[in-house]
Protein 1
Amino acid sequence: MINIPKGTKDVLPSESYKWQYVESVARELASLFNAKEIRTPTFEHTELFSRGVGDTTDIVTKEMYTFLDKGNRSITLKPEGTAGAGRAFIENGLIGGVLPAKMFYITPAFRYERPQAGRLREFHQFGVEVFGASGADTDAETIMLADSLLKKLGLSVKLFINSIGCPTCRAAYNKALKDFFAAHLDELCFDCKSRFEKNPLRLLDCKEEGCKKINSGAPSILDYLCEDCSAHFEALKEFLTLAGISYEINPRIVRGLDYYTRTVFEFVSDSIGAQGTVCGGGRYDGLIKQLGGNDCPAVGFAAGIERLLMVMEASGVQIPQPAPVKVYLAGMNDECRKKAFELAATLRKNGVIAETDHMNRSIKAQFKYADKLGAEFVAVIGESELSEGAFNLKNMSTGESEKVSFASAVEYFSK
Ligand code: HAM
């Protein structure tokens, strides 16, 4: 027996309707906001992520599924969707097309993390990226899309926002952070000691208890924003209020990817434990240039589908079940089974969900099977029904039976 790899999950036929539901709500909302779907490859050149996501991030240093292909190229399974969407935006000349370009994706993503509830090695994201617009109204609209999705799925989550400024104000803030953390260097964890030199902002993100305690006294980025970034953040708050979205400012939110500038945000649920961040995103005005394009502002988010489903389950959200089998056609003998087969084919051609026997079961066993399927009706075809040209139709919820001619079957079930 070969088992499933650690940190991955099967979505079984009995569960897949839940995924389809979340995906269809996401697609509907994306189209309401005029975002069109983009599909990019599952793997990209490794450099896209080291350059895009940032080579000091945990994702790039520890978590990527990277391998050499048979042509000796370094290839990486996408750990997230933004870098690939950005690459496709540049490579396909969309940067010179109609802007803003709003797009969404539903994609698997791969990170070699320590698996636990809500943290997988293969997971799935619904993401939205908007390229070309720099104003805070676009950030607010992107947040509004995420907020609408979470509300439509019945989730009660909290929105935290922050601004991490632009490279100019970040330089002053990084210096202030270094001055602060220099006095605590001995008390920091191993990872934070190396982050101290390379990317002090990352220190604020550490999950180690000791580091978290020190972090609480660190200076706030909001006190270091330059005039433009500060005005952008003020405008964001105003647009969120206009959109009727409540938020909390949390200056500790820095996100785990290096491309962010100005707005960052997270939607967090407290019903599934430590991995409660169901959705995260922000503005990334430098990424397109960094990947070889022109200067082009952008903003987006991604929501983890597994986490959305976990929160929905924990909050008792009822997901609409798929339509059941309308009619199960039971045949008494080989000749009757052929008629059942033919009628099932005709009904399906006319949009009626029909099922019939494929296991040579007795009539009693066929009824049992139809019941397990949740079939609304069972049509029994025996010798006499065959010669009459009509089946005996049992309504499985009322127990009532009636005769329905083969010729009127389609009309009967299409009512
Ligand atoms: P992220 O915060 O790394 O951002 O991931 C977004 C969401 O994906 C998380 O909030 C979480 O729900 C889900 N997620 C992340 N890692 C895992 C995991 N190991 N297992 C299960 N779910 C996970 C990004 O990926 C950015 N690309 C978002 C973005 C788009 N920013 C701008 N545009």
Protein 2
Amino acid sequence: MVNNVVTPPKPSNEPILGYAPGSPERAAVLAEYERQSKIVVEVPCIINGEEIFTGNVVEQVMPHDHKHVIARVHLAGEKEIKAAIDASLDAHEMWSSMAWDSRAAIFLKLAEMIAGPRRAEINAATMMNQSKTAHQAEIDAACELIDFLNFNVYYARGIYEDQQPPISPKGVWNTVEVRPLEGFVFAVTPFNFTAIGGNLPTAPAIMGNTAVWKPSRNSYLSNYLLMKMMEDAGLPPGVINFIPAKASQAGDICMSHKMLAGVHFTGSTGVFRNMWKTVGDNIANYLNYPRIVGETGGKDFIIAHPEADAQAVKIAMIRGSFEYQGQKCSASSRAYIPQSMWDEIKDDYAAEVSKIKVGDVKDLSNFLGAVIDKKSFDNIKGYIDRAAAEPGCSFVTGGTYDESVGYFVQPTTILCEDPNWESMVEEIFGPVLSVYVFPDNEWKQTLELVDKTSEYALTGAIFARDRRDIEYASKKLKYAAGNFYINDKPTGSIVGQQPFGGARGSGTNDKAGSAANLTRWISARSIKENFTPPHDWTYSFLD
Ligand code: NAD
């Protein structure tokens, strides 16, 4: 498969720029934000390299300024969705037979473009479209995306090269061919990370697959600009086909197609379960059994031991729960704090959170922007309002919201007497942290509670000092999180350092940005060649 290729050294993570006052990156991203905010982009479908303006248009707005339209998006209908599938199937032979190094070079070039000349463009679009601060856009649309591309190419090269050659007895030559899947991959992406938008179609493509990419209705602009960058990096027509579309229509058409080879999904648990059901309903109609990879929701926890570093716990609660408005799948949204520690940190915690500024992301003094849309705002508001009406709940911080200009929710901390109150159990996906205070002598029982409270198992953090407590908690919570943190917040995983994904209701745990994920997009062919085939059917045991 790979000829004369030397594996390069492992790539290093893209350095995160600081955006300090006076820095060139700050000036660049703000200038780009200003430029982009003055235009309304017509976003087409991109099928077989052609831009298709269907005329069935929806508007995309800034979540923090919802009267400000940033894009008019031309939705794909049945005709375009089917055309996108056809285009990906037509491109399959060309793409899968292209020299591996040529394929890889496209994605390495894309990473270089984003690291350099296109960095401000994709970051500014992510700020506008998904209401990320400059810092949050930088760690997502620039750094994580660059890391996904560079590391996936590195891991892919390893998969091709590291095939353990099978044993070949005398007269026989055995080999294993690493093939892409037969058919197309349906990549369905969430709003909250531009990097995931990029990763889900490109990871299968790096392994020689072609894809239909259905972006989220809340990140059309940033995802479209990324698609254009892929083309500028040299991606041939038809390899990735970009179809903004009504989700259920795209889902029904793609997932009932005979040539569906795989689903690469990130989003909520309910949507993923429905998609899996659809695949199940169609299972007899497919040419192959589709690979199903899905990273889904979370109800991520922090639990502190009474002897833990209280200051570190306090900071983890703030950063882990509220950055990007709590809209990271990894965001902590339930915390279990021992009574003595709570008494110590409560006032200081509330005072610190009250310093957090919420507002327009182009004002870099804001720590939080808006939540993504009206539907999400109303959902979060519902949790806050129900907690306000519940005698067993009280607000330590926040509890207020305002949608007059943008969908703003103040960082909210709910103290819950009942550890099974809805906000301790369900994914809210907003800046809402629920806290349960437990008696100091109930550390072990509380670990049990953490494990059993929610259906999810994405991320979680324990804070403790004594190694025996750390070891005990690690064992007790073995299946409670796919990404487990000791004395650190449960967000901020880095490609190549902490491969990301959860189990239980949180996904198939195929670890985005790792070799494990890439192996889902290949299907091996074992080949035996016999140099001396037998010319006689009888065996020696016969008389
Ligand atoms: P979502 O489930 O609403 O949407 C995700 C994608 O699925 C979108 O593109 C949407 O249009 C599409 N979709 C919806 N119904 C569909 C259908 N019937 N057929 C085909 N596609 C369909 O999620 P979201 O609001 O965009 O993102 C937030 C969710 O994603 C949260 O639950 C969060 O925890 C999760 N998430 C998980 C991870 C992870 O790695 N585990 C990472 C990011 C986000």
